[in-house]
Amino acid sequence: MNILDVFWENVDWHRKNKKIPWYELVGGNSGLATSHKLNVSLKRAQEIAELLDIDDYAILFEPLD
Predict the structure, then answer these.
(1) CA-CA 20 to 30 A from 47: which of 18, 29, 58, 65?
(2) pTM for the predicted model, two decimal places
């Protein structure tokens, strides 16, 4: 699994648990995010983590297994 797959899988897991819709995280690009094709900068990863109320955004890059 590549790093983008891990990131978006984690984002999806957290957003589902917190009942946050995709559009609040990625705007109109939810289809790209869910297909794991949307690139993300570290700054944007941090912004997404803040929207998910995650203190350390590095957790989004760790495999769930």
Answers:
(1) 65
(2) 0.83
